[in-house]
Amino acid sequence: MKETIITGQQIKLARYAKALGHPVRVFIVELLSKQSCCYSGDLAEELPIARSTLSQHLKELKEAGLIQGEIHPPKIKYCINRENWEEARMMLRELFTM
Questions:
Q1: Going by DSSP bridges, is the β-strand pair 38-39/67-72 parallel, antiparallel, or unpaired?
Q2: CA distances from 13 to 7, 89, 93, 97 (A)
Q3: pLDDT tens, 38-57?
Q4: DSSP 73
Q5: Which H or E run contains 80?
Q6: In sequence order, what are the residues at sequence separation of 6 or more whose Cβ sits closer than 8 angstroms to the Cβ of residue 76?
Q7: Is 81 within 8 Å of 2 (Cβ atoms)?
């Protein structure tokens, strides 16, 4: 039996990369990185996609830890998770400088 050579760092980097693997999610991260926070309704106005599709993209980014959401009924406010975003940036930078 072969020993597993996949590290926790590689798994985490792959999760970040997967979350950024769709142009809509890249757009969302770019938008949120330029402002402090944004409500999901405001994002829906910016993007020509169904709200249910937007919700799925936000869920993917949130599960990866790149964004965080606060519920303010009936709205949800989303922000970049600065700590994880910086970690993802450093990990990607290291990968591309190898």
A1: unpaired
A2: 10, 10, 11, 15
A3: 998 899 998 999 999 999 99
A4: T
A5: strand 75-80
A6: 39, 40, 69, 70
A7: no
Q: Which CATH number fits domain 8-92: 3.60.10.10, 1.10.540.10, 1.10.10.10, 3.90.650.10?
A: 1.10.10.10
Domain parsing of the chain, residue ranges = 8-92
Amino acid at residue number 90? M
DSSP codes joined into one string, 17-70: HHHT-SHHHHHHHHHHHTSS-EEHHHHHHHSSS-HHHHHHHHHHHHHHTSEEEE
Tens of pLDDT along the chain (98 residues) come to 677 789 999 999 999 999 999 999 999 999 999 988 899 889 999 899 999 999 999 999 999 999 999 988 888 999 999 999 999 999 999 999 97
Reported pTM: 0.88
DSSP code for 1: -
